[in-house]
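User: Second chain of the day. Same drill as before.
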Amino acid sequence: QVQLDESGGGLAQAGGSLRLSCAASGRTFSIYAMGWFRQAPGKEREFVARVRRLGGTTVYADSVKGRFTISRDNAKNMVYLQMNSLKPEDTAVYYCAARSTAGGDFDSWGQGTQVTVSS
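Assistant: Same format as last time:
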């Protein structure tokens, strides 16, 4: 099993920045990719970004492309989400996730961290 622990959420003004961190522990050697998802009030959880553990290939949702950057530090078992040019519609609970296979579902989840962007 992989345990994930997010930090770094909080309140930001529109146009501002926040950086989320996610620490992985447990069977980290089994991780194929890590990602960030978010869920706004009354909405379904949506994909934000993911990064392959080996090689570092990244994928972003169109809504955050050019504003958010996902990165990883394999030595520290960390993944980060740098969020710039924040918008009120970025307000959500952000979840860190991990998956162990290339085509499978994300099967390990953190508890989530709240991000609130004021206009």
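The chain has no helices and eleven strands.

User: Great, on to the next one.
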